[in-house]
């Protein structure tokens, strides 16, 4: 359900809204779900709809970019924009425009390799850049470090539940992973559409395909299958929305 300034938004309330037809299915889904989404204004709600669709598009762009999966110790990036720390973090170089550096990841993907949590943060930055434009992005994110779930000023939260929406980050857990291949203890993914996910390092797959891939990296004698956790990680839109103004 959607609550705007304390008022419940009903299906009949949006019948005359003039919005991009691509946003309608997501808007209706948010209205009909038992999960509560709170906004201060309709503009805030529209920001979330556009951002979610841009998360989906950014995930697809990263998939096509040629950027590779790598463990932290094997992380690398385009040295024109990024330096790699001893821990395997990509740190934005001094005075480099954040928008150009983030966009370079999909424009010159073969120059990059990082692990799946880092990929999610990259996707969030790409989606925000597309949503708010270069000027506001550069002002809001003047210092970027890409490393695991290190996300500087991005307001990100995770909550339990079984209802998932386009642009959500979900997690497939592999409880009996091979200790020699600990990077496959699980996989962060972006929900692109019903039962279709982008998993950095694996590709665009359905849930069973991701589970099968993770199961192939279990320890010897493992009996428990990988599975999708009942939780979703999302950007906190009310906290993020002020940077658009």
UniProtKB/TrEMBL annotation:
It catalyses: L-glutaminyl-[protein] + L-lysyl-[protein] = [protein]-L-lysyl-N(6)-5-L-glutamyl-[protein] + NH4(+). It is an enzyme of class 2 (transferase). Its EC number is 2.3.2.13. It comes from the Bacteria. Keywords: Acyltransferase, Sporulation, Transferase. HAMAP family: Tgl. This is Protein-glutamine gamma-glutamyltransferase. It comes from Bacillus mojavensis. The gene is tgl.
């Amino acid at each position: 359900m959607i609550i705007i300034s304390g008022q419940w938004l009903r299906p009949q309330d949006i019948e005359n809204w003039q919005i991009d037809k691509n946003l309608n299915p997501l808007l209706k889904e948010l209205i009909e779900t038992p999960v509560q989404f709170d906004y201060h204004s309709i503009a805030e709600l529209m920001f979330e709809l556009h951002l979610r669709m841009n998360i989906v598009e950014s995930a697809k762009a990263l998939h096509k970019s040629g950027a590779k999966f790598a463990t932290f110790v094997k992380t690398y990036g385009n040295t024109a924009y990024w330096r790699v720390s001893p821990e395997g973090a990509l740190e934005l170089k001094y005075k480099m425009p954040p928008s150009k550096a983030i966009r370079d990841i999909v424009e010159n993907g073969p120059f990059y390799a990082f692990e799946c949590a880092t990929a999610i943060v990259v996707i969030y930055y790409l989606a925000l850049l597309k949503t708010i434009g270069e000027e506001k992005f550069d002002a809001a994110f003047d210092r970027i470090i890409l490393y695991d779930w290190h996300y500087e000023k991005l307001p990100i939260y995770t909550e339990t539940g079984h209802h998932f929406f386009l642009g959500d980050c979900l997690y497939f857990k592999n409880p009996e992973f091979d200790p020699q291949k600990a990077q496959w203890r699980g996989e962060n993914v972006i929900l692109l559409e019903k039962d279709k996910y982008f998993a950095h390092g694996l590709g665009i797959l359905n849930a069973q395909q991701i589970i099968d891939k993770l199961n192939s990296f279990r320890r010897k004698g493992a009996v428990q299958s990988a599975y999708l956790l009942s939780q979703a990680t999302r950007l906190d839109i009310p906290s993020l929305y002020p940077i658009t103004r």
